[in-house]
Amino acid sequence: MVRDVFTIVMVAAGAFFFLAGTVGLLRFPDTLTRLHALTKADNLGLGLVVLGLLLRVQGPLGALKLVAVWLLVQLAGATVSQLIAGAARRGEPSA
Amino acid sequence: MPQHLSEATTAGGFLLVLAVVLPVTAALLAFVAGGRRVEWIALGTMPLGLAIAVAIVVAVPQTGAPLVYLLGGWAPPLGVALRADGRSAVMMAITAVVIGAIGVFARADFRTPAGSVEARAPFAFWILLLAIWAALNMVFMGGDLFTLYVALELLTFAAVPLVSLDGRGETLQAALRYLLFALLGSVLYLVGTVLLYGTYGTLDIVLLSHRVHAGPPTLVAAALMTAGLLAKTALFPLHLWLPPAHAGAPAAASAALSGLVVKGSFFLVVRLWFDVMPALPGPTAAQLLAALGAAAIVFGSVVALRQKRLKLLIAYSTLAQIGYLFLMFPLAVDPGSAQFQSGGALTGGMLQAISHATAKAGMFLAAGLIYAGLGHDRIAGLGGIARALPISVLAFALGGVSLIGLPPSGAYLAKALLLQAAAETQQWWWAVVIQTGGMFTCSYLLLVLGHALAPADKPVTLRVPVPRIGEAAALALAMCSLLLGLVPWDGYLSVPVGIPSNPPVLKALATALWPILGGIVLAILLGRWGQGLARIPVAEAVVAVVGSARRIALALGRMLVRVDGTLRQWAAAGFSLLVVAIMFGAAMLAGR
Amino acid sequence: MTMAMALDSGLAVVVLAVAGWTIAARGTFAAVVGFVSYGLLLTLVWVRLEAVDVALTEAAIGSGLTGALLIGAAARLRAGEASPVEGPGVVLRLEIAVLSATVAVALAIAVLLLPDPAPTLAPAAAENATATGLGNPVTNVLIAFRAMDTLLEKVVLALALVGVWSLAPDRVWGGYPGPRHRSDPHGVLAFFARLLPPLGIVVGIYILWAGADHPGGAFQGGTILAAMWLLVMMAGLTDAPPVSRRWLRLVLIVGPVVFLVVGLGGLWLGDAFLAYPAAHAKPLILTIEFAMTLTIAATLGLLLAGPPERKLS
Amino acid sequence: MGVATVFGLCGAAAVGLGLYGVIVNPQPLRKILAFNLLGSGVFLIFGVVARRGAAAGFGGDPVPQALVITGVVVAFSASALAVALLLRLFQETGRATLHADAATSAGANEADP
Lengths: 95, 592, 313, 113
Known about the structure:
heterotetramer, C: mainly alpha, D: 70% helix
């Protein structure tokens, strides 16, 4: 029961961050601020979702996989946002 | 195909495996070996492949039933079977012959130059040629509709790069158009396969033929698959890609594309309508298909007559000949049961396909030699070439003659069979179209020969010496087509009694006279003669007589050329594709 | 309407909306980005359809590699976008829209009218699974029951590469494919390209290995390996090998060749072409899959790299 | 309505969108993109057929699923070849269009002398 409540709260909070990030992506004026909204939301939102699900997986291997997913997304997100930001600063057109 | 519900691998079935494995292995080995070895491997494979095809041809009538091979020992529906019936055997044999001739011809054009380890065009050409061969063999004997899809894609991927081997912008564009339109066609085919699987739980041709019934999913599948295959066959009005691709490719590649590749998807239309669902399409759809064929004959021929360049003329004549292949469909419908029957009409259609494969390949090779010799292929500039390159012009002429349907050519037998079927099923209008097709074929042959036989202003000096072996290959293909009518087809294709393959001379001449006379009239009325016509005194007199008729005919010709140009726009062709698919759906629904 | 139903419907609507956007978007680049997200959404659909193997393939190839291919092309074609090409007129567009919709509706009706209960080969596949000793039914179909399709598909891949290479200008034949990628050796991309591949290679091999009994297999694993290779190339840490290298060409065909050899072995030993002797089925299949993974990774990577563009120095 | 029905309709609609895009969009790259969309719609119908055939403890019929995997690979090869052709065409001519060049039908329209 406590575990269920924890999961619900955590995943809901994660979803909220995704929502906020998406709104930011759509509403913010330029590439850098949009990027800011997106990365914050991704890192924190996904982190919260993973945290919420951690208690529900069976065995440590499953938990490890979840954490690995989070870490990989962090890594990819960080790299890609760096690259996009670099491109934006150099004034290349972006999508 | 006979009724085998629980089938097993037949004796000699392993030949079918070899027919695919041999060219595939050769292509892979050539890829690694590289350099000059690519050519050697390809040429070395050709006699072996021909031997396998001959072995299959020998084995098929002995068993009296298709050769069957269950791949991996798994029987359909879970597994995939290879099956070779008479039709497959004949097509595989003719493919081996044409590939062999193209190989001999291409040695001159696709040789790795001395001093270089490996050159791009030869490397690609020989591997692609082997791949075309493997794909076609698979198409001819694949027993499963999805395996056939993969084979069809293999065929496309092998054919497209051949178009743009010279790397000019024009041919690159032709290749891209070809690829994209062919992909559109194969996706439509693929939709059909999934609907059939969802309805019957199998894609095996024999199993499907027992289970198929006319529910809506099956009708939608049949309509989409037919339209998709027609797009790949370039049946009018889905031909936007064919003229630039076939005319722009190097001669050896054009011969393979025009002679062989379009026959792959044609063969699958036949498989689909005659073997998978003989009761389904019905007479209305058959009439529609043949009507497209008739339109192809008129458009292809008239536009061919208006061309300035020899290779484009041949490409447009391919368009017309493809139309001819589809005339057999309404003639093969049994009036009583409305079923498609593997009788004389089907044999006629297949023979036409075989004759065209050899004749057209030979004609493209001959045109390639003329191009190489002159440095151009403008029809108006062909004067004197018959003296300079007699063998090439002879090969071209013989190929054309055999396509007109003069005895003893395969096309003659085909025409006789089709005319007989038209008489039996009382569809006189298709007999008219068949005869008109022969006249048109004759007319553009006359147009070319009229220019080639005309004396030149100054003696023709060849730019490069033309290789004898290439001329021999072109001539051999043309002769092959001319003599196909003498082959005993009984064990492979059903030939009804009463069709003599070797008719009395007088009667043959009488039947041959009509297309020739009609061809002369058409050629004079519609041909692009320029100064050429003035050189022939008789023709000049005729022109004076029929001057006004020619003016009307030319106006008509120009109109058709313009319509053709519009239809070959991408969006218009896509529009036509959808219309064709929907019309076939409606026709099949109506024929239910 | 159940909860799952509502979710599925919502997913379908979003998928179609993104699909519509990729068709309607003005800019090519935007359309391609739309396509990549469409592919990722489609992966969810595949999971909902209980086809995890396909979901992996769709994510890796349908969305990932195709997306990379199209983005790369869009970037290189950007110079040509300035002069927009004319499309068909409004009337023709409308007509084509109506016709496309007609085909779609006919297709939808056909799908709705598929028979119930649906015919299936699942029991047959389950029954014969012992012949291979593998637990993943999809792998069984790909490698045993319909091995010919898979073999032909490998040939298709090899041929597509020959086709791509055949587009090279003559003077650079035998040289290096694609443009040389350069980037800051201390930049973030180079860092990423050093950090990720060791992990990616492990994951790729794991997916290949797991494919015997669980979702995964040679294709999905090979694609991940290809992606790692491409990442290293794009970061400028290594160059694509020249197309004339003998070892490269060997790698590019080892998959189908091993497949053919094992298949012909089956013919020789009396069973059938592409039949595996029951005692050795699993090791033989794993050998084929391993060889295929190598070939797939190399072929996919080079298909993305494009035809040779730089001379062999 | 089940999951199969929903995504079956979704697949059919994607086919319609893809057909429209391939035919109407003038830029070849957009055509290639639409072709992939079209293909994915077809594959989705394969997935629906597979899902409907769930039996013997499998969540779906493995045969159509395997066919999709083969199909995805073939479609990718096609896209790769098409993109390579397109880029080469652009390199060679500076234009990326399928509009028929005057060269392909040259002279055919002119009047006879």
